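Milestone M4 deliverable, item 7.
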Amino acid sequence: MKTLFSIVATLLVLAISGCAPQVDTMADQAALGNVAEQYSAACGAGDAVALTALFTDDAVWMPPNQPAKVGKEVIEEQYRALFDQLTCELELNQEEIAVAGDWAFDRTTYTVTLSPKTEGEPVKDRGKYINIYRRQPDGSWKIATHIWNSDLPAGGAE
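Output delivered:
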């Protein structure tokens, strides 16, 4: 009886898993790489609207040495304030991408040069970030949480 139960349970699990939607991890990883490319391009263009379009409406933006910012509108205000004062050259290198159903994350390193639009010297930084993504109903990916920090000592921009 135990053997019959084990066989039936195994067949049931196999049948259910066979009905589960197939996940195309390679396509998801490529899509997440595309989000990073769009992010870098929008930064370079100083386009706060294009940048925030990459975030979910309830996204959490976690800058270093500041409280978290919640919501797409608040994040857009932060980017607008940045781009009002600075131009941005951003290079990203995605080190790791993992997908788990409708959630994913990437671990990325960055180098950035922020140049004042008026007076002052450019500030260079390098560091890392983690994005947590949520799949949208249309299948696209958006950033749900963004956290980053510098590799340089505090106050030690190059």
